[in-house]
Amino acid sequence: MEASPTLRHLDLDCWKLSDSSLRRLPSTLHDLTISFSRRHSDAALSALAQTVGPGLRRFSITSFESQFTRSGFAALASRCVQLQELYIDGDDSFDVNSVVQQFAAHCPLQHLAAFDLTLSTLQAIASADRQLQTLSLKRYSSADSCVGLCDRTIASVSLMFPSLTALHLVEFVCDSTNELTDKGLLWLSRSPLAGTLVSVTLSRYASSGVSNCSDISIMQFANALTNLQELHLAGYKRMSDGSVHELVRHCHNLRRLTLDFNCITDASLLTIADNCDLTHLSLKSCKGITEYGIMDVARGCINLISLNLGFASGVIDTSVITVAENCPRLRNLVLNDGNISDASLEAIGAWRHCLDELA
Fold this sequence. Notes:
Helix content: 25-40%
Largest sheet: 14 strands, parallel
Order of helices and strands: EEHEHEHEHEHEHEHEHEHEHEHEHE
């Protein structure tokens, strides 16, 4: 790779690579996606700091059971003086809050995705005068200090980062003490972010779901955030077809929509089909829909690139064949747990879809 002076983007799995091998990376890299494992130590971070650190604009790191320390990440962060995008995922083998704070202190961050951050870390980012444009937070830990999908997080984020165009909050734990309620949705609807956000995720993938947000608050949310192009709302126990109708009626630019684990029916799908030109739609585990609703979507949203019907009801040969016949741009199709036969696969093959993913 040392002989690759024009290389700008690299996706690297270091599972079998040694720490020292990273010293051979070209200094021309602007965009690095890298995965580490238990065999890697601070020497790997040091190698990155010396070779690619000064030139990086985008850095995505995934690390599980690694041996990285706070000082190792600090040395790397101090060299990444041009870094604008940081994406970090992994486990509790390293202190993710310390890592993010180090990068925020040294780098002109504009885009951040991380997990299990605390409110103090968000405050440190804001104090460093980092004008974040996108913020994506996942919560895996049940620790009270970790910010997740709740009223407090939305209120804090809207005050700290008023320039956000994308806000993504995803929670994977049940926490009855810190939940998203009508108050949180209304706060977001009335904040300056309502006029700037084009992409929003407010999802909980846990058995409790989001049970304290009423139809009315979701409708008011839709009325306020009219610039949305991408919206992901998963696990809303009280979402109805009326909510979806309001979302679709007010968000005219919507292209990506996720309604996983929601209690919607074919009425919602007909509304989507009649009013949206979606490229991405996810209806995972929606048990209130039928094949007729899916067929409506297929006929109305002919520019779909990605459709997730995993574990949803209504996935039978008739609906899948209608999707195959009406969505020629489809690249990703998920049909897990569908009641289909060879007829569905033959229909997909007959229309010669250039699928990247079929599940």
